[in-house]
Specification:
The protein has 5 helices and 12 strands. It is an alpha+beta fold. A hairpin with a 3-residue loop joins strand 4 and strand 5. The chain is globular and about 55 Å long.
Length: about 250
Amino acid sequence: MSDHVPRYFLESVDSTNEWAKRAIQKGAFEEGCIFQTAFQEAGKGQLNRSWQSRVGQNALFSIVLQPDFLPLSHYAYLNFTVSLACRAVCSSYVPAGDVRLKWPNDIIIQGSKVGGILIENTVIANRRISIVGIGINVNQSQFPGSLPNATSLYLQSGNRIAVDEVVFRIQRELMRGYALLRERDNMQVIQENYIAALHKLHADINFQYDGKSCSGKLVGVDELGRVRIFAGGQTRVFRHGEIQVEWI
């Protein structure tokens, strides 16, 4: 892919994922292209949770991919790849910080959330498309009371950082990892690297499942992206949304 990937920018939009979907439906696109905004009026995360951000202070963007080489059963590897790319770039700004991945798709530093990922898979004009929505708190220094556990690269490093630089660096790192993902021999290593970066790996956690309070040890994530928890003498797997983990 060219280093001069198309980038589309609007000062304000409902969400970059929705904008990207509308744009793709109207015509051709270059894989890896970026849809970026300074403010999302209806930004969203997993399970339709809202994403709140100050205007112009954070990296809010979507990258369009066409992973037709991936079987549907292996789509979790795309999330692994995107998460590792975000972690790598965030780590470069806060070398003293501990940047980890909170299952399934949050980026955290010292236990506080600095970013999140929302991958939406769709079919447009008979093409399987993945729209990778990414939000990274870059320069925001204050957060609403409804987000008591949020942080930013600025708060963690003490340095103001160019938002566009973060966007382009993540895009380049993602496309590098995406090229490796195409070479199917790398899939196990990608999964292992994701697991090694997990927040609370091998730690005891509490979680809610089927209306009950449970506890166990987080031991990994399987090839379908399900979390693996050792509880009650056995390792069990759970899909996102099936359990609610008490991370704090």
